[in-house]
Amino acid sequence: MHWRLSLVRVVWLVVLAVATSVPGASAEDGADIFVTPVPNLPFSGVVNVERSVVLRNGSVVELKTIREIGRDSRGRIHNESRTQVPASSTDAPKFIHIHLYDPQTRTSTTIYPGEKTFRTMTVSHPPSTVPPSIRYAAPAGDGLPPNEFTKEEDLGVHEIEGVQARGVRQTQTIPAENSGTGKEIAITDEHWYSEDLRINLMVKHSDPRTGTVTMSVTQITRTEPDPAFFEIPEGYTPSRGTERNN
């Protein structure tokens, strides 16, 4: 019974973290697929997420989810957030929200399919045109400053879903006295960046203390998405707290 309660609590905490994160920003463990609002590079795809959560008793909970992403020739982006389900589940992950952003008007819209409502605001600080993790995939010498605990590896260029991407792995070594485990541990972050699409096609994060997450972009289509993908669905109404400026 205690194990079941722990499992429910972990799943709820993970889902809550996703639900409250800023769309397009890094996830709670630093790993996410950030869709950049750049024009003239239309595409759509599906992000597959696989997560392993380490419980306090040492057991591991396996979770998964999917979400659609896209960008049109105007640079408008579509980014979904869905609940995470057990890896063995055949249930489709439910929508939490959908984030839309139009760089021409700086309008950020969050859609809540479950409630058929939406919130809009005009942002004063638009999203970056490069992923937050691009520093890891920068040319040699342009990454993070080297130190005795951090190592960066160039993984070369490989094809992912028909698109060329360059991989970089960063490994941070935590000394035993600071790891909280009594042992030296290594935390790794891996990013596969496509210069052509201006997004990371794969992101991996691993911390022996908390677990792992792998996010990969699949089913990539390089054609113009349906305009409805970037619009508020018909019949949706403004939710409380809708703002026009931020």
Number of domains: 1
Sketch the topology as an H/E string, one letter per element: HEEEEEEEEEHEEEE
Q: Tell me the distance between the termini.
A: 46 Å
- Name the beta content range: 35-45%
Poorly predicted spans: 1-30, 134-145
Count of helices?
A: 2
How many strand elements? 13
Helix/sheet category: mainly beta
Morphology call:
globular
Q: Can you give the mean pLDDT?
A: 82
| Percent of residues in helices | under 10%
Gyration radius, to the nearest Å? 19 Å
**Biggest sheet character:** 13 strands, mixed
Structural commentary:
With 246 residues, this protein is mostly beta strands. It has one domain (2-238). It is built from 2 helices and 13 strands; from the N terminus they run αβββββββββαββββ. Strands 1, 2, 3, 4, 5, 6, 7, 8, 9, 10, 11, 12 and 13 form a 13-stranded mixed beta sheet that branches. The radius of gyration is 19 Å and the shape is globular.
